[in-house]
Amino acid sequence: MTTTARSLTELYAEVQQFHAAQMQALDSGDFDAYSATFTEDGEFAHTPGRPAARTRSGIAQELHAYHQERFAQDPVQRRHSFSMLRLSPRTDGAIDATFYCLVITSRPGVRQPEIAPSCAVHDVLVREKGQLLTRSRRVAHDYLSLL
Ligand code: SDN
Q1: Which of 16, 40, 122, 140 has CA 20 to 30 A from 83's CA?
Q2: pLDDT digits (tens, 9 = 90+) for 78-119
Q3: Residue 79 CA to ligand 1 centre (angstroms)
Q4: How many domains does the chain have?
Q5: Domain that holds residue 11
Q6: Distance CA 35, CA 44 (A)
């Protein structure tokens, strides 16, 4: 295996581990831990029509507001499930990561979960003090992309 191939393999595993910790924080409702996985000036757009959130505290605030609006009267367990991760390291050290996301929602006592929306996600990842962070995340919803 060439050095480049090996380092891409290592990076791939690292990004998967990073995403898993990040999304487990989100799905457990720990919006501060989720926003801490972004750079201080990070940008996050998760729903068309809602302005992109900026900065760690802006991202945490937006997630609190969104979940309050949508789920205060509708208790759910959501799980964001990622697949088809593709990485393209840039020459400046940033990494473009594209992948699919299905949001799986369970409601109390209902065995059959809802699976929606289906999304395509584009992250720009950077490394600060050895740690991967998300500099920007844009989520495109398939049902809207098809219109
Ligand atoms: O963080 C994400 C998200 C995300 O946070 C989403 C939220 O609501 C809060 C990473 C990758 C994908 C997503 C997708 C969503 C979906 C979005 C809108 C909805 O639930 O309908």
Answers
A1: 40
A2: 999 999 999 999 999 999 999 999 999 999 999 999 999 999
A3: 10
A4: 1
A5: 5-145
A6: 9
